[in-house]
Amino acid sequence: MSTRRYLISKVLQAILTLAFVLAFNFFLFRAVGDPVTQLLRGHSGISAQAVLQLQRQLGLDLPLPQQFVHYVKETFEGHLGYSYFYNLPVSQVIAGRIWPTILLIGLSTLASTALGIWIGIRQGWRRGSKYDQGMLAFTLFTYSMPEFWFGLLIIMAFAVGVGPFPALFPTGGYETTGAGYTGMAHVVDVLNHMVLPFFVLTLSYLGEYSLIMRSSLLETLGEDFIITARAKGVRENRVLYGHAVPNALLPTMTVTILQLGFVLSGVITIELIFNWPGLGLLTATSVDARDFPVLQGLFLLFSASVIVANLVADLLYSYLDPRVRAA
Amino acid sequence: MPPTEQAPDREVAPPLLEVRDLKVTFAGRIGLGAGLLGRKATQSRAVDGVSLQLRRGEVLALAGESGCGKTTTARAIMGLEPPKEGQILFEGRKISKGLRAYRRKVQMVFQDPTGALNPRQTIYESVAEGLRIHRIHHGPNGETEQQLVARALSRAGMRPPERFFLNYPHELSGGQRQRVVIAGALVLDPVMLVADEPVSNLDASVRGEILRLLLQIRDDLGLAILVVTHDLGLAWTIADRVAVMYLGRIVEIGPAEDVLTRPLHPYTKALLNVVPEAGGLDRPILTGEPPDPTRIPPGCRFHPRCPEVATGAARAAGVEDRCRGEDLGLMELRPGHFAACHLAAVTVGEGQAMSTSQPKR
Amino acid sequence: MSLNGRRKGPWVGGTGILVAAVMLATASFAGIAGAQSATPSPAGKSTFIYGVTAPNSSMNPLVGYLGIDYTIWSLEYNLPIEFATKDFGADLEHSIVTSVETSSDNMSFTYHMRSGLKWSDGQPFTANDVAWTLNFYKESNISNYSADLAIFKSAEATDDATFVIHTDQPTSVFNGQSVWMYEFILPEHIWSTIDEPKKFENVPAVGSGPWVVTQQKPGDFVRLERNPNFWGTQVGLEPHVDVIIEKVFNDENQMAAALQRGEIDFGFFDSANILNSLKTKPNIKTWGAQIPLFDELAFNSGSAFQTDKAGGFVPHGDGIHATSDPAFRRAVAEAIDKQTLVDKVYGGYATVADSPVQPGATTGNWDPPADQALNFNLDKAKADLTAAGYTDTDGDGVVNDPKTGENVVLRYYTRTSDQNTIKTAPFVKSWLEQIGVGVKVFAVSSGKLTTIIESGDYELFHWGWFPNPDPNYILGIFTCEQRAPKPGVYGNNDSFFCDPQYDQLYQQQLTATSTQARVDIVHQMQQILYEQQPYIMLAYTNYLEAYRTDRFTGYTTQPEGVGDLLATWGPFGFIGIRPVTGEGASAAKSEGIPGWVWIAIVVGLAVVIGGIMLGRRRISDEDRV
Lengths: 327, 361, 625
Ligand SMILES: Nc1ncnc2c1ncn2[C@@H]1O[C@H](COP(=O)(O)OP(=O)(O)OP(=O)(O)O)[C@@H](O)[C@H]1O
Ligand code: SF4
Ligand SMILES: [Mg+2]
Fold this sequence. Notes:
The structure holds 3 protein chains of 3 kinds. Chain A is an all-alpha fold. Chain A has helices at about 1-30, 35-40, 50-55, 65-75, 90-125, 130-145, 145-160, 185-220, 225-230, 235-260, 260-275, 280-290, 290-320, 320-325. Helices cover about 30% and strands about 20% of the residues of chain C. In chain C, the strands form 4 sheets. In chain C, strands 1, 8, 9, 10, 11, 12, 13, 14, 15, 16 and 17 form an 11-stranded mixed beta sheet that branches. A 4-stranded antiparallel beta sheet of chain C has the order 4-5-7-6. Classes of the chains: A mainly alpha, B alpha/beta, C alpha+beta. The structure holds adenosine-5'-triphosphate, iron/sulfur cluster and magnesium ion (MG). Iron/sulfur cluster binds near residues 266 and 302 of chain B.
């Protein structure tokens, strides 16, 4: 019963946050000023009439409350507005860019959490060992290295080829332009392009996860139930994986999901550096072009995914941790 | 000189557990920086030559101030801390041989039942885990796992046991949790229980219950119990014999009644001074720095804080130099009652009780 | 003692497996990468890839407005009359129109077309399509085309191969002697059925040009494929390339790297430094193309003081009085050493400019006669300034406005997105300070500057234009009507220049009945602009291009000898390029992924999985404490 109430409260909370984001999004982007005018420089013989027409077309001539109602209605119908810059529906622009990002973030988050957790477990288990100290130094280094800098170094080393490094990988992009691969060849081509951004993104976030996992495991390993298990003759392997890791994973998982917002911001840099045509690159170019409808759509999407991820985390947490279920 | 406890009666059967001159050291905590600079850690001699024996069905209390090494001793006995020196014999055999069988026969109960239970396991799983580890699928009379778990819970006072099977630890009270921990121990039909401060984390109201439960288990099942406690009053209530530890070593051991009413060691006397049950004063008479296992004083390790030295009683008895310079082991000063004190050795020999710090009765 | 082994974890060898897996994966990808380093071309198709540094604004010719959009439409569609590659003149030999007749009243123009033209979908392409398109542009008031169609009344198709254009006034611009109409002709059977043509994505497109867009990923690439029904083969226009891809880069350095790696064949650059760094690279050539493109220093020529109400203008802004005085502006112009800027700022990739109508424009560039030229001469500038009444009356080193008595200090805006504007500022500041004019330099974003210009809150800014080959459009921006009427409303006339005589000439050039008469008027207009200096024309900047020599050959220039290698005003440049064959051609293009790579991948996976299984077994064997 209490579990149900917990779930309902979490879902309600998420919906409220989303509603807030929706409203905030609307007013924030109205507040930055009328973007129509700067689109028109370079237009042959634009008239004031045409400007008005464009404003009307974009719904910018209505009173603010009406614009808001319009906006909410449209958003729920999946219409996120019309890109000033690409002159296409925002939903179409975003839809065309979403998969590369999901692929990149998905795979690299999987890899960085899996690897980070794994390294963290080993570090925690052999705390103070050479491995632990080496990994600590390594992960702190990768964690603190700015992504753009790291990315540029990697491009120089592996894409352009400097000194002893041969130019192994493409400098950027999602696929070999114009190759027209299909099927497996296409998959391999995309993976080949993804190696470097994947590598940088994974390494950038690895440290965070391994550090959290390490300290979380150390804490768990100090608990009496671990000693109890050992005293009862539980094998070391099961002490770790049956008792310590499941308990230590919970905080790591929460952080991983909370981290999503940061990963999204990191992916903007990475996509820009590697010309990876995903949402991050779209964000960067839309900022440049002052393409507010697209930014608005992206902001909504990013916020919604972070909120939903948090909700999923809460629900998972309640499933995985019996203590929360009752709370 | 290895301090040894001589068996009071020359029993033919060996004691259930015999600890001989156990030493456990820890590398003192050092920072990462110091470690990288290659600095050596100071050694912490947490247990520095403990010897004791435990017979079947006997309750032995291991008492002493915080940090004196009680827990470390208990954990070493459980095979959780590798001894640096010394031997631990169980049923006459070293525990390092046949550790698995040993772990079935010897179970441990902790101070904090909340931490001792995996929060993600149900009560049933926690209790049954021991059975599963040791691949016990049936009881001696063909009981199922479920019946074994139910019996253990019920023996630990969780009745009806089935009601608790699917609960999680956080859904129980502290006392109930401790009962579950005890049930987890009992389910394997152990012959010995090591209980480290089994009640000090519980509400005063349930302490008595749990202590009664332990005694009842001893009576019903004939278990030997080693109870670690810093509370001499508690030791008095449940123990057959009491061992008092100071700075990694047992300084006095003997029948509970004898040790607590007629203590031989100045340290024991000082401890009893604050125990109401022993009619102690509320005024602690132990002063000086708390003991530090990285810097164990020469001679009698208690001498920097010993009231007998401070008041000049030791000098008067002509033992002060030995107090300061001559390390010593346990001596049987009364039948079955051992102590490690130069002064006591002299005064008891003269049949005199120490007047200065003898607690009033 | 066995207890000592306790902390020795269960996974000895785990790191080894991981490292092996990563190395294997990397190696197999590397193998693929190696195999792909040449542009692969499935089924023997040749693919030409050119790089750009900004995404397209639209594939729809009613909507897009960037130069790179026009490049794509030039390949997809035809203008009634195409720009000649040589000089932007009318190329009737290679157009859908073969001849034009002008009526005696100079108000009707009969266009004769080739017959048997087809759209890429096989439908016939007739005079109906042309007439429909022109009428549609006029009626829908499409901003891209409204300047060209200002005096256009209507078009009608009299038969499949003939259409007639009627105008409101007599004119020469539709007489077919120059390319007046920059109007892409659309297929009526597609566009007349669309409800909201401005929201039409137009991908894949139906067109009449040599290639049509088949796919786009906005901000990533645009793919064009050969139109099987291209009519140009009738007149010997035979494309040699099957697929053209425009690849978008967000960073010029990335584009430079991609060119070096052969991921692209051609690139349009913005930075002279990057272009120069490519100069010495093997198999790469660089080129500064002279095309209609200029940078100017624009004055606020008096938004706050103007009274002419054309276009609903209301005086606004806080620009100072001095810049509304042509004498002041001329003196300032004499203080600017354009050649130094060309050399030091533009790295030589530019030429000194004097008129917004560039040499090579279809209709009449005008050069100031030697005696009227405002040459760089600080002493003369100072003397002219003094003569105009601007002297330092309060002795603080800065001249004072004779009218207001205030110090003349110019707010001078540069744009953060354009390094050249930022690099120019210190030069200009130092020159102006030498003649006693104060300067405060600001660097802002383009968007912010637009707002500042509309408000009229500036004295000077540095920006540029990319005009059409015909001067109509760029001359039109100086008319009174094109000023921003009030803050917050856009206007092309960003110097607020307003001169009734000039506006009159602008109308006259539209309605001159002979091409020569129009040229004369266009010259007069340029002279007015030169004398009044609303813009100090700084430089005709080059289009920076670099390309691989081992891939494609056959580049032509537009205009001839100096211009754009891809001749992007029309399709002819692209039609000319063809793959390099024989010696010097780049390594054999691979057809997909070689078998050994697949084997490597499979073996790698097997090893990884096997390793993991082994690792697991080891875990359960260990730790019998
Ligand atoms: N894992 C360890 N590493 C280093 N030092 C330790 C470790 N465990 C215990 N010690 C030290 O050994 C000494 C004895 O500790 P122990 O826990 O055995 O004392 P205790 O008598 O049980 O005390 P308490 O009553 O507080 O539980 C203390 O000084 C303690 O700091
Ligand atoms: S030996 Fe001496 S110092 Fe030690 S307890 Fe006895 S009297 Fe005190
Ligand atoms: Mg303890």
